[in-house]
Amino acid sequence: MNLFPRILAAAALATAVACAAEGTPAPQQAAARQAARPQAVQSQAVQPETVQATQPATKPQKKFKLGIADITPMGEKTEKVGVGFPIIVTFDRDVPDKAAVESVLSVQAEKPVEGAWRWVSPRKVIYRTKTYWQPYQKVLFKAQLSEIPGNHKARNVSRRFAVGAKHVSLVDTRKHVMKVYRNGRLAKKIPISAGRGGMIRNGVDVYLTTSGVHLTMGKKAVETMTSSWMGVTDPKDPRYYKEEIPWAVRISDSGEYVHQSFGDYQYLGRSNQSHGCVRATPAGAKWFYQISQRGDVVKIVGTKRKLQWNNGWSYWQLNWTQWKKGSALRAAQS
């Protein structure tokens, strides 16, 4: 059973990994759709006409109402999240004064830890902590939008999150093993096979698994993976594939998953043979799927391809000083 909802990828990336699922929008297409959205008018100025001297030259400007289109993750009654989880807030229009908006956003945790907001687009801001959240607690997010000047008719929004167990997985692509730690203790060692490399696109070997701190973003009991990401859609092409992959847990926007190996079990624990995903044994992949929460940490080491910080929920790729530079409020105060 899928314990948390699937999310759509939003980060714009230059390359993709061969494990990309069927129906996943290309980054360029996603960006184009974003650009095509109608932009809200912040204030509508009225051009003056010939009037009596006692009349004002212009009418008062109309107020706009900024609202929230989406909050990720879901609330405490829907899912439990991992200790690396970000709070992703998407507004219903471009934000004209990011510092003013950021000032009315608050995060209150039962086990407090320092955190900061970072703007990643004109209408999206992300909250990340300095260190991982403590497990087994509740975190309350509030957006007092009515306190923004000129936005007093807006609806205030809040959401409470439930943090579950601390899951941190270490994937060593050289030793071909994934070690899963639960609350600091080794829970399972799973033989794996990572990306074999060998396909260079725009100077990047897209067949290599990316090294860095990933977060789990979603999962499906069966995911359809195809070769369409590299423009191969003809079944007669020897490079073509379309496979139904069990126990797929997504860890990046570029199509990387931890999933059950589609055959080739002889390579697990011995060599890297995938198109970029982390393949696991049937039993290991199913177990990992069952315990996974969105926001669990998956740290991958051993490859020359570095994970980009904006590839999915890979925000831990930025150090704390770098992350804080994305805060509009801190920039306004400095």
UniProtKB/TrEMBL annotation:
Active-site residue list: 259, 277
Comp. bias (Polar residues): 49-58
InterPro entries found in the cross-reference section: Big_10, LD-transpeptidase, LD_TPept_cat_dom, Transpep_catalytic_dom
Signal peptide range in chain numbering: 1-20
Keyword tags: Acyltransferase, Cell shape, Cell wall biogenesis/degradation, Peptidoglycan synthesis, Signal, Transferase
Pathway(s) of this molecule: Cell wall biogenesis; peptidoglycan biosynthesis
Any matching Pfam family: Big_10
Domain of life per record: Bacteria
Biased composition (Low complexity): 29-48
CDD domains listed in its UniProt record: YkuD_like
Region (Disordered): 29-59
SUPFAM superfamilies: L,D-transpeptidase catalytic domain-like
Domain L,D-TPase catalytic: 167-301
Protein name from the UniProt record: L,D-transpeptidase
Organism, as annotated: Nonomuraea corallina
